[in-house]
Amino acid sequence: MALTKKATTAPPPHLLGVLRSLWQWRKPIALVTLAGTLLAVIISLLLPNYFTSSTTFLTISPDQISIDGVFGNSGARMQFYGSGDDIDRAMSVAESDALVDHMIRKFDLYTVYDIDTSQAKAPLYVRREFLGNYAVTKNTRDAIELEVTDKNPVRVAEMAREARNQVNDIGLGLIRGTQERSAQSLRSEITSAEENLRNIDERIRGLRERSGVYNTEALSESLATSNSSLQNLTASTVAKMESYRQAGGRGARDSIAKYEVQMAGFRSARIDLDSQLVRLNRSLGPIDNLEEERLRLNLALSYNRIRLKQFETILGTDMRAIEVVEDARVPVAKSSPVRSLIVIGAAIFSFLAAVIGALLIDSGRRYDWDGVFRE
Q1: What is the pLDDT of residues 184-212, one digit of tens each?
Q2: Do residues 342 and 43 make contact, with C-beta atoms less than 8 angstroms apart?
Q3: How many CA atoms lie within 13 A of 334 on its CB side?
Q4: What is the reported pLDDT for 156?
Q5: Which of 43, 224, 231, 295 is 20 to 30 Å from 238 at the Cα level?
Q6: Of 183, 220, 172, 180, which is closest to residue 318 (Cα–Cα)?
Q7: Which residues touch 219 (CB under 8 Å, ≥6 apart)?
Q8: pLDDT confidence of 57, banded at 50, 70, 90?
Q9: In angstroms, rounded to a whole number, what is the distance separating the alpha carbons of residues 201 and 84?
């Protein structure tokens, strides 16, 4: 059998030129790559280690720390954990100036970040540095993750815990501020209602003293009973007098005289009773109106006192605005820098830079630059 030799295809001329140039410059390329790699190794070893600590927490629904939720004043279904708005509010608090300023003061971050406080922009620099090492995110399960990066592993765990506690304290302070304002409004309403009740009591007392009516209901019943009794007695006496007049005689005249005296007493009693009825009718309306108003004010006052007591109970109770899912721990491994990636990246960059430089230099030698510049 005859053997056929397979023909080889030569590379394109331009590719041969590139390979030839790279082969000629192989030693400089290798030296540049080695130098860049060694420089990256030295720089990466000089870079400080950074540690990251994180904590995860859930927001608690405001219903859990409201008087309607705690004391069951509302019939609505209670939510245990916060919804989207509550999560957004907690994240806003986590990124607020109040929290950042507290962290700067608490951990003396001017000294930690080596920032000169005499500089006019020092507050801007320290805030920018802290926010660069601080992140707040919401995960897929609606939990908030707070992450802090720092050179000191112990301090970074303390910073993460303190930032989380500040989210709780500031968020709780916002809710308690609203509750305190509501409680203060109730105190003002209670004070005003008590003053109105004192005024009503004085007016009722004055009306009773002027009219002599102290208990409208009892006096009405008494006068009605007296009026009925007086009418019965008068009718009976008149009937007896008429009977004695018909009978005649000396004994009848004496009895008639006696009953006439009684009738005079009855007429006097009628005048006095009518006078009392007039006074009662004149004072009955104003007194009843004032007593009705006093009853209404007393009911409102009792309700406000109960609400105020509930607010004071809530304000005096140790409550939380967040629920910790995962506490911040002292990290045992650094988070950055990743020195292997730095060295590998520097080696690749040095190699590519050396290759490009070699190709440019080799290509530049093909031109008569003196002639080009003379032209």
Answers
A1: 988 898 999 889 888 888 877 776 666 55
A2: yes
A3: 10
A4: 93
A5: 224
A6: 172
A7: 213, 276, 280
A8: very high
A9: 52
Residue position matching structure tokens 């951990």: 107
Give Cβ neighbours of residue 367 (< 8 Å, ≥ 6 apart): none
Q: How far is residue 282's CA from residue 217's CA, in Å, rounded to a whole number?
A: 14
Q: What is the distance between the alpha carbons of residues 115 and 298, in angstroms, rounded to a whole number? A: 63
Please say whether the beta carbons of 346 and 42 come within 8 A: no
The 10s digit of each residue's pLDDT in 304-359 is 888 888 888 777 777 888 888 999 999 888 877 777 888 888 888 888 887 887 77
Tokens 């004192």 belong to residue: 198
For 51, the token pair is 């540690």
Closest CA to 85 of 163, 161, 171, 166: 171
How far is residue 98's CA from residue 103's CA, in Å, rounded to a whole number?
A: 9
Supply the pTM of this predicted model: 0.64
| Residue 156 C-alpha from the chain's centroid | 27
Q: Angle at Cα 26 formed by Cα 18 and Cα 40, nearest 5°?
A: 115
Whether 234 and 262 have beta carbons less than 8 Å apart is answered as: no
Q: What number of other Cβ atoms are within 10 A of residue 219's Cβ? A: 19
- Rounded (10°) angle between helices 250-315 and 153-211: 170
